[in-house]
Design brief:
The complex is a heterotrimer of chains A (267), B (757) and C (189). Chain A has 267 residues and is mainly alpha-helical. Chain A is built from nine helices and no strands. The longest helix of chain A is centred in the C-terminal third of the chain and has 27 residues. The radius of gyration of chain A is 19 Å and the shape is globular. The two termini of chain A are 17 Å apart. Chain B is built from 25 helices and 29 strands. In chain B, the strands form seven sheets. Chain B has an eight-stranded mixed sheet with strand order 5-4-19-18-17-6-7-16, with helices on both faces. A six-stranded mixed sheet of chain B has the order 25-27-26-29-24-28. Chain B has a five-stranded parallel sheet with strand order 10-9-8-12-13. In chain B, strand 20 and strand 21 form a beta hairpin. Chain B is globular and about 75 Å long. The chains are: A mainly alpha (267), B alpha/beta (757), C alpha+beta (189). Chains A and C meet through helix 3 of A and strand 2, strand 3, helix 2 and helix 3 of C. Strand 10 of chain B pairs parallel with strand 10 of chain C.
Chain lengths: 267, 757, 189
């Protein structure tokens, strides 16, 4: 892809942040010791606002935003339609959950359903962005990338709201996600280098891009060092991770090579 | 393309808009499409754009550019708007197809870049153009012409440069218009093909080639310095067919062209050593006893002398050394060529654009003749022909006003000047060598050239020694250019007049390669305020006579359709099997004779035979025999080749935005070794410089060119000041003056060096 | 499906003249920069002489088209009778998913309309009994309409260097590879 597709970058990162926050907040509460009453309202409200921002961003991606509602027309085969559907379900559940929480009528089933819907959104996104035209990501990788984003940003954000008891869990999720992210993001482009022509070009493009090293340094390595030394998540650290994810996503859309760019050359 | 873009075109016709307004409107439409309510008007409003709808009015047009193929086209029109073109289906030559240029014509017609009105430029080269009315433009021009006449007592201070930008027969009305004004100064000659024309005239008495469609019968084809894959795409299918039937295709060229890539064998010949190569083959054929002695005895004179020359001064090894082609290959192909009858050689125009170009063509002619391949179906030394051009040239043949004075002395005539020499009066036009336009305009005196009229030509892109040419233009008191786009010549004009495209005028076209004739109908009404060359002539005549009665004999009111009719005669009708020119509305016709050149063995030479030894040629100052002539001594490190691109015809077509989608910018092609020695990498910006001028351009590395040459395609890009004529001086080719009025020009005998910018 | 139309790309005959590509613009007047048929030069790893062998490619009318599969608004359909993949531009919302997803780069973005568009195989011409404009225009018969439900003619290839292999999409395109001339280079340099 030759352009940065900023709306898509914002939409996918913010959407995954929202889903990550919803799920990790729910996980924290599920793991909370009995008798510690708490509400997900603050976390989910933030997630809701972020999701809203992401959806607004996605509108700018369409040539004809008025046609947005029609994106559900091809559930039969188009993962983009499924993404729209699951996203709609996730958003509806989230809003419903918030509404219930406002009335102190929480439903565990609803929370669980929202999390499942969120994961379904990420899965649909993963499928949408792994078409055959991008051999490097015509696989499970986009889903993995997006899950890492959700885990990183979700746990980073959750850390801000986490009660004392849940902090080790959140830190562990963040810590683990950073390590997994670092390993995957360093390994994947190197593996691409030994692939076919387009994979190789993608690997070369990623490895030579400042965006890639920005995401590795600012978004993964530095946060890991900070986390290990400070044992907590200051807000600016979360900001670093978000910046890294935005860079990484921009690279995902701009630096992944399309087969058609090499027409007439060896594949 | 959308509905509203279609509407654009309609609007452009009904109500001409300026480009700025057009763009503003487009932007507004785009902004509207961005609004979310775009959804609401989806469906109906955004329905199909320009697609095939059926129910078109069809008109016949003919591509009038200077091209081998001169294609007939069928223009599909709906509601007065030309929608698309197809190649004429009934022509076996065109076979329904055109070329990349032909298929861009719709854009040319409706291009927002077109010159729409007469305009005047405040200061040449400033771009400060102001729209004026036709009346004002013609008044200014006429007043100048009258002033010249009053100052000099003749119209010789008025010069015309016109060549092949539009070969529609009625466009010779430009010359007619000039004749109607009196005796004027004319740029005569052609940069194109004159050395070869003269060579063939010395050898055979005319330039005459077989029908290209008969090439399928050849058992051996040598494509010598010709690139039909780009410059005559429709001939390629006959070459393929010959190949399928078992013929061998050999391509000889300094450059590994697209045609070379499609041949069985390609020889990278040392540029301008084609004569040596041909003579080497001739010597080997002689040695091996493969001369068609019967044909030579019956049809030729001077062969014994030619054989003597070969025996005494030509060897295979010498030819190999001169041409760079291994002796073993030359020998083998010579035998194959002589042993496979009919065999033919297609002689390209590029290979005669040298100081020894005419001599080289004569050597190749001799090779074809000595193997008995002249006058045979599937054989021949093919170069070109003018056998189908027997029109009346009514538009061209006009009488000067009574009592006007002119140039005392003989005038040269171009190869397309079919007028008969006038009896009696001693006055004539002053003729200047078109290939030395810059120096001739600067040097002409008594009277000097004061005003220049440019039509069907883009001298600043096509003529030589561009820096000098700018000086020559600067010397002019007035420059009038008739054109369709603001090209580099228009940039140097005072007044520009908008001329019609092929779709907007009546005319008729024939080719100099194939044997077809095509009508060119007016398929749409002229856009904006454009006029055909004939209409411009009539309008100018009207104004001249208004200001000074009797100063111009050209009719002041003409019907271009009637004038088209005036070009036909019984000879044309007979040749093409027509009852009336109206028959051509149904499709193209092909000549019924002349299809095999010299089949009857009656040559047009003084002896009536093929002349290996031409006394006429010797009289004209050249060798009587087709002897080897040295090539031009290099004056810089690398040879500069400036041949044709497939995306343009000379300076035309390359400027169209549609064409830019496929050919966005110019390159200089350099051999990787040559580039490496100069630290140049693929894609680098480089400067090509020689004694004439310089060009700054992007490098493309390829071993399609030899290490001792670089290549640039001639072209005019609308957003790029690229001009390969900065590097080409006006050194003459050897021959050309006999039949074309002036010697050719050694376009490919140029040298330069290249450095990283 | 009765037939499956596709293109024969005869690179042995193709001279890279771009006539087909321009003939398409001649018929459809695409915006500047929007090209439905492109003529791709083969790199020197595939053909040793630079820009001397080509594939002229447009939409390959896949058996399982990625564009059709991924379009969220079902703006694509495949014609039953001849397998032509049609893009209904009035339905398109310009999401770019088809453009991203087609491995052959057939759908293009029209920046003015803010919609996708692609080679239609000239279905309107086909329905009128005519040949697609590109095929009609080719001066050397290097592209042709073929029906891939019929056995391939001898010498035709499905997978060739210079063209991305996509068996799951099964593009309806067949190739003939270019040949090389015997090249005799100058001895004096």
């Amino acid at each position: 892809m030759s352009t940065y597709e900023l709306p898509l970058v914002l939409f996918t990162v913010l959407g995954q942040l929202s889903i990550g926050l919803v799920c990790i907040a729910a996980l924290c509460r599920a793991a909370a010791p009995a008798g510690v009453p708490q509400s997900l309202f603050r976390e989910w409200s933030v997630a809701g606002v972020v999701l809203g921002a992401g959806i607004v961003a996605s509108i700018f991606h369409l040539g004809h935003p008025g046609g947005m509602v029609r994106t559900l027309a091809n559930l039969e085969t188009a993962w983009l339609s499924r993404e729209a559907l699951t996203l709609g379900i996730f958003a509806a559940l989230l809003v419903t959950g918030l509404f219930l929480m406002r009335q102190d009528k929480e439903s565990r089933a609803l929370v669980a359903a929202t999390c499942v819907a969120g994961l379904a959104v990420i899965f649909s996104m993963g499928m949408t962005y792994s078409p055959p035209s991008f051999p490097a990501v015509n696989n499970i990788l986009p889903f993995v990338f997006f899950m890492i984003t959700a885990a990183l940003l979700g746990s980073g954000a959750a850390a801000a709201f986490t009660p004392e008891h849940a902090r080790p869990l959140v830190l562990r999720i963040l810590d683990t996600s950073l390590i997994i992210g670092l390993v995957i993001y360093l390994a994947v482009p190197c593996i691409w280098l030994s692939g076919g022509e387009i994979m190789k070009q993608t690997g070369q493009l990623w490895l030579s891009s400042p965006l890639f090293w920005g995401r590795i340094g600012i978004g993964l390595a530095l946060p890991l060092v900070v986390l290990w030394t400070m044992k907590k998540v200051p807000v600016w650290l979360w900001g670093l991770i978000l910046a890294g994810e935005l860079m990484g996503r921009a690279l995902f859309f701009a630096g992944t090579v399309h087969t058609a760019t090499n027409m007439g050359g060896l594949y | 393309m959308t509905q509203w873009n279609q509407d654009n075109i309609k609007t452009a016709i009904d109500c001409p808009m300026t480009r700025r307004r057009f763009m503003k409107w487009l932007t507004a439409a785009g902004a509207a499409a961005m609004l979310p309510c775009g959804f609401l008007r989806s469906g109906q409003a955004m329905a199909a754009g320009t697609v095939y709808e059926g129910g078109y009015d069809t008109f016949r047009n003919a591509c009038p550019r200077n091209c081998y193929d001169t294609c007939g086209m069928v223009t599909h029109v709906k509601d007065g708007v030309a929608k698309f073109v197809e190649g004429a289906p009934e022509s076996t030559f065109t076979n329904g197809g055109l070329c990349v240029k032909g298929h861009s014509y719709i854009r040319r017609l409706y291009s927002p870049d077109r010159i729409k009105y007469p305009m005047v430029q405040q200061g040449r080269g400033t771009g400060n153009w102001k729209r004026i009315s036709w009346d004002e433009a013609l008044t200014r021009i006429s007043e100048k012409f009258i002033e010249i006449n009053e100052k000099d007592g003749s119209m010789l201070g008025l010069a015309l440069t016109k060549y092949s930008g539009n070969f529609g027969i009625t466009n010779y009305g430009v010359e007619g218009m000039f004749s109607s004004l009196g005796y004027t100064t004319r740029m005569v000659g052609t940069p194109c093909w004159p050395a070869g024309i003269d060579a063939q005239n010395y050898d055979m008495g005319n330039m005459w080639c077989n029908d290209p469609e008969d090439m399928v019968n050849a058992r051996y084809i040598i494509l010598w310095g010709v690139n039909p894959a780009w410059c005559s795409v429709h001939t390629m299918k006959y070459i393929y067919e010959a190949k399928r039937r078992g013929a061998k295709i050999l391509c000889i060229d300094p450059v590994l062209t697209q045609t070379a890539a499609k041949a069985d064998e390609y020889w990278q010949v040392r540029t301008s050593e084609d004569g040596a190569l041909a003579l080497g083959m001739a010597r080997h054929i002689l040695d091996k006893g493969l001369v068609d002695q019967d044909w030579v005895n019956q049809n030729a004179v001077g062969f014994a002398e030619f054989a003597d020359y070969l025996n005494s001064e030509v060897t295979l090894e010498w030819a190999a050394e001169k041409s760079g082609v291994p002796a073993e290959r030359i020998a083998r192909v010579a035998e194959e060529f002589a042993g496979n009858n009919p065999a033919t050689i297609w002689i390209g125009y590029g290979m005669q654009r040298h100081v020894n170009g005419g001599a080289s063509v004569r050597a190749i002619d001799a090779l074809v003749a000595m193997t008995g391949n002249v006058g045979k179906v599937g054989g021949g030394a093919r170069y070109g022909h003018l056998m189908t051009w027997g029109f009346n040239y009514h538009a061209m043949v006009q009488q000067p006003p009574k009592g006007v004075k002119g140039y005392l002395g003989p005038a040269a005539k171009g190869e397309f000047d079919f007028t008969k020499d006038q009896e009696g009066p001693s006055y004539s036009n002053r003729t200047l060598n078109i290939n030395k336009t810059a120096r001739e305009l600067l040097n002409a005196s008594d009277p000097p050239v004061r005003a220049l009229w440019v039509s069907c030509k883009n001298p600043l892109s096509q003529d030589f020694d561009r820096n000098q040419l700018i000086k020559a233009f600067n010397k002019m008191e007035m420059v009038v250019v008739v054109d369709q786009f603001f090209n580099q010549t228009v940039e140097q004009a005072d007044i520009v007049l908008p001329v019609t495209t092929l779709f907007e005028e009546w005319t008729v076209n024939v080719g100099y390669w194939h044997y077809w004739i095509s009508l060119n109908e007016q398929s749409v009404k002229p856009l904006y305020e454009s006029k055909s060359n004939l209409e411009i002539a009539a309008a100018l005549s009207k104004k001249m006579n208004q200001l000074k009665p009797g100063s111009c004999t050209f009719p002041t009111e003409i019907d271009t359709r009637e004038w088209l009719e005036k070009e036909f005669n019984s000879g044309v009708y007979g040749l093409f099997g027509l009852n009336s020119w109206q028959d051509l509305k149904k499709g193209m016709h092909k000549a019924g004779k002349h299809l095999t050149a010299w089949a009857d063995g009656k040559f047009g030479t003084p002896s009536g035979k093929y002349e290996f030894k031409s006394d006429l040629c010797a009289e004209h100052g050249f060798n009587a025999l087709p002897k080897y002539v040295d090539s031009r001594k290099p004056y810089d490190k690398l040879r500069v080749l400036t041949p044709h691109t497939q995306f343009g015809l000379h300076s035309q077509f390359v400027n169209l935005d549609w064409m830019e989608d496929f050919n966005p910018k110019p390159y200089v092609y350099i051999h990787p070794d040559t580039a490496k020695a100069r630290g140049i990498a693929d894609g680098d910006t480089v400067v090509v410089k020689n004694k004439t001028g310089s060009v700054t351009i992007e490098a493309s590395l390829t071993d399609n060119v030899p290490t001792d040459a670089i290549l640039m395609y001639e072209a005019w890009f609308r957003n790029n000041d690229y001009n390969c004529q900065n590097l080409v001086d006006d050194t003459s080719a050897d021959m050309g003056a006999y039949k074309a009025g002036a010697p050719g020009v050694a376009i490919h005998d140029q040298f330069a060096d290249v450095t990283k910018a | 499906m009765a037939k499956q139309f596709g293109f024969l790309v005869d690179s042995d005959r193709c001279v890279g003249c771009f006539t087909c590509a321009m003939a398409c613009k001649n018929q459809y007047h695409q915006e500047k920069g929007v090209v439905w048929r492109q003529v791709y030069p083969l790199t020197q790893e595939i053909y040793p002489h630079r820009e001397r062998a080509f594939y002229s490619l447009a939409c390959n009318q896949c058996e399982h088209p990625a564009c059709l599969e991924v379009c969220p608004v079902s703006a694509y359909y495949k014609r039953e009778a001849d397998g032509i993949v049609v893009h209904e531009q009035d339905k398109c919302i310009g999401c770019g998913n088809c453009i991203r997803s087609c491995p052959f780069g057939a759908p293009k973005y029209n920046p003015t309309l803010k919609k996708a568009e692609k080679c239609s195989f000239c279905w309107q011409r086909i329905d009128a009994g005519l040949t697609p404009m590109c095929v009609l225009s080719c001066p050397v018969d290097a592209i042709a309409v073929i029906d891939t439900t019929e056995p391939d003619a001898p010498g035709l290839l499905r997978d060739v260097p210079g063209f991305p292999r996509q068996p799951s999409l099964n593009p309806s395109v067949r190739f003939r590879l270019p040949k090389q001339p015997v090249v005799i280079r100058r001895e004096d340099i």
